TrEMBL record:
Protein name as annotated: Cholesterol 25-hydroxylase-like protein
Transmembrane in keyword set: yes
Lineage top rank: taxon: Eukaryota
Keyword Isomerase in record: no
Organism of origin: Clupea harengus
Length: 267
């Protein structure tokens, strides 16, 4: 009885994230197989895009959906053909660019899988620090890509082919840009020295926020309505339409500090 009580006490003293971490540790292959990691990254990105695909498909039938579309009726929903073309392009780039780069990164670093999961507080702190660092690196890299004509032509202009953004456009970029952003994300997590579970959650959130930035909808539950420090879809669409300003992906402070914030967002 005494033993049972102790076991029960131990169970409840474990961090909340422990069972999730135990589950992931049993599937170590996820951290070791480049093919599996690439498939997971591709599928997660697509799954985050699916709700916006549904909105685009229903847009012509249910006109009220246009109320949430940035630019309203002026920018009609993205056609299914554009979605499929873009999905094909991204799939090809994952196969030829992301898969080899994940294989290279995995060969360069030994996965460390500690037994203990982080506490919720530690995980949250890790994720916020990673997001802030990634936002800073992205801002600097993005400004550089716009300032140096060669970099814009060779690396970034593919991403700007989408004048009106839609969810999949988040990863509709050149292989060089996709890999460079992957390096920035991995570098941010390495600098923070966060727990592998925090890092996995950061990559998940990073993918979601990139989709949210490009979705083309201003929905009431968008991050910008939850926290005003977030930039949001309207903010990033203005960048796509003016080819300058609003360089930061998620937060507004760097654009505000360096005077690169667009004062009037495009409609
Ligand atoms: Zn973009
Ligand atoms: Zn740009």
């Amino acid at each position: 009885m005494m033993n049972d009580t102790c076991l029960l006490a131990d169970r409840y003293s474990e961090p909340l994230l422990q069972s999730l971490w135990d589950h992931l540790r049993k599937r170590q292959v996820l951290f070791q197989s480049p093919l599996l990691a690439t498939c997971v990254a591709f599928c997660v990105h697509f799954l985050f895009c699916v709700p916006y695909l549904v909105l685009d498909l229903l847009g012509s039938r249910f006109q009220w959906i246009y109320n949430y579309r940035i630019g309203g009726r002026a920018y009609e929903s993205c056609h299914i053909r554009r979605w499929l073309d873009c999905l094909g392009r991204i799939f090809f780039k994952y196969l030829t660019g992301i898969l080899p780069s994940i294989a290279l990164f995995q060969s360069l670093r030994e996965p460390s899988l500690p037994e203990k999961a982080p506490s919720c507080f530690i995980a949250l702190t890790d994720i916020i620090l990673c997001l802030l660092l990634f936002d800073t690196f992205f801002y600097m890299w993005h400004v550089l890509m716009h300032w140096v004509p060669w970099l814009f032509q060779q690396v970034h202009c593919t991403h700007h082919q989408n004048y009106e953004t839609f969810a999949l456009a988040a990863q509709d970029a050149s292989i060089a840009e996709l890999v460079s952003l992957q390096i920035l994300a991995l570098g941010s997590a390495a600098l923070v020295q966060c727990h592998p579970l925090s890092e996995a959650l950061f990559h998940l959130l990073n993918t979601y926020l990139a989709v949210e930035d490009h979705c083309g909808y201003d929905l009431p539950w968008g991050p910008i309505h939850l926290l005003p420090c977030f930039s949001g879809a309207q903010y990033h669409q203005a960048h796509h339409q003016r080819y300058k300003g609003n360089y930061a992906p998620y937060f507004r402070h760097w654009d505000w500090i360096f005077g690169t914030e667009l004062t009037q967002t495009a409609t």
